[in-house]
Design a protein that fits this description.
Helix content of chain B: over 70%
Number of helices of chain A: 11
CATH superfamily of the largest domain in chain A: P-loop containing nucleotide triphosphate hydrolases
Largest interface: A-B, 31 and 24 residues
CATH topology of the largest domain in chain A: Rossmann fold
Distance between the termini of chain A: 32 Å
Radius of gyration of chain B: 21 Å
Oligomer: heterodimer
Order of helices and strands of chain A: EEEHEEHEHHHEHEHEEHEHEEHEH
Structural class of chain A: alpha/beta
Strand content of chain B: under 5%
Number of strands of chain A: 14
Number of domains of chain B: 1
CATH class of the largest domain in chain A: Alpha Beta
Strand order of the largest sheet of chain B: 1-2
Number of domains of chain A: 2
Strand order of the largest sheet of chain A: 6-7-8-3-9-10
Largest sheet of chain A: 6 strands, mixed
Shape of chain A: elongated
Shape of chain B: elongated
Radius of gyration of chain A: 24 Å
Largest sheet of chain B: 2 strands, antiparallel
Chain lengths: 312, 275
Amino acid sequence: MDEVVIQTNNLTKSFGRQIAVRDLTLRVGIGDVYGFLGPNGAGKSTTIRMLLGLIRPNRGEALLFGCNISKNRREILKDVGALVEAPSFYKYLTARDNLRILSRLSGGCTEKRIDEVLDVVGLLDRANDKVCTFSHGMCQRLGVAQALLPQPKVVILDEPTSGLDPQGIKDMRELIKWLATEQKVTVFLSSHLLHEVEQVCNRVGIIHRGKLLAEGNVDQLLQRKTEVVEFTVDDASRAAEVVRHFEWAEITAVNTSRMEVQVAHQRIPDLNRSLVNEGIGVFSITPKTVNLEELFFDIIRNTSGDVNNNPS
Amino acid sequence: MLTTIRVEAHKLWRKPRTYLGFAAISGLVTLCLIAVKYENPLRHVERYLAQDFIMSGSFVNAVFLVHNLIEILAFTFLPLFACLVLGDLIASEAADGTLRTILCRPVSKAALVASKYIIGAAYAVSLTIFSGVLGYLLGRAFLGRGSLLIFSDGIWIFNEQSALLRLLAAYALVSASALAVGSMSFAISTFLSNSNAAIVGGMGLLYTSVALGAIDYFKFLRPYLIPTYSQAWHRLFVDPIDTLFLLKSFGVLLAYAAVSFGIGLIIFVRKDVLT
């Protein structure tokens, strides 16, 4: 990671006896598209609010551009665009007027810039319509437009695809990619839509019950699992008996002609040789790719006991 | 802070609900005008006075209408309007989520809340002044001009110029009183983030103060209660005027407003934005 743009150190927030975020330490580098994953109530929005100075942490610190948000909120937010949860606007004003008001609070911008961001989100033709006439998806897009208005170095988006139709989700995905590649903006994106995150993010952090369970490059995280390989054979039950002799291989599923085995990549030829030596016909060996969704549930399943037992 | 004040002013004047306050005041003033013109509450008094004095013109005139308006509006309507405005400033934006949108910008929380209060207070005071100005203009148009007749520990008659000056001072006191009650509502709204609770809370505190002030057992509290000072405007319509008490009343009411604003400011700056 070249330069850290967002950093939290032991960030902790509780509401009464309920701990929303506990000892959260994460790093987001410059140019990253960081996916912050977690189920509902995991602590994603609370973390984002702490990153933006909307909520004060009980313990720990949130740093953006190396400065503590609690102490330098106004300075930091000049370079940050954010969309937190459902977008909210003044419904009696037009989209353009809403952006004018919000731009004034960020030091002002030109009408040309307002047109630019409205064009980016596809709302230029509705610029002079009152927000009360907008659908949820259009409000969501206006929310992204207001986040982009001050030409930020970092964009923080909390569930940006929430309420969008499939086309809207695709557009949002393209927009995030465009921001990262063309505009060189660092994006911090919270979501529970794993498929979306997998497609746009280069790094992810997985949070569950307020605790960060895993963090790293998407590719590295997906490779860290032992590979699952599917063998198509003429007699799967006999093949399973052969595999059970090896400590380094574990059968995860068997039916008449297919057998799934969890095995290290370099052991696959050994396993194949053993099956052939036992007279079993092997028709195909297919590595089963692990996606982020499987990884996510695997991590949550394996660590939920730890989280539950962790003393607060 | 000037920018946030401008933004708040812009939002207020673009909001359709802003004009409902002026429409409601206009309706109330019109109702009072109709009642005064067609009921003539002074008809028995004027008939009685005509037995001993030579009467020219009528005491049912513009200044009489304005004085009656204060009597009607001062205790309930103007504090209620102030609560509706000031109690709604933070709470409605918190409920709509727009507060969160604004606070994701490089805006000082203190400057934001101060700007909102300044604009809200200006609006509440402008409603009060509007009621007086409209009452006087309608009164002049439909009732005519004349002296002000007041019954308060005797009969007092003030010429129009003197009456207008006294009414002006009365409106200043009534505005300060409405502002004091509205500011309590504002403080409650920053704590509860609920405009209904803030409005009920502000008015509830006012009525509780009235009840406490009326009970002899609690008379030691009277120097600290808003109603002791909010009714002080009555003392403008006697001679000589107790200037010291009136200035003290004005000061106490403004102090109530300032302390309530201060409490609201501290709560807002320290509070997490969860909505």
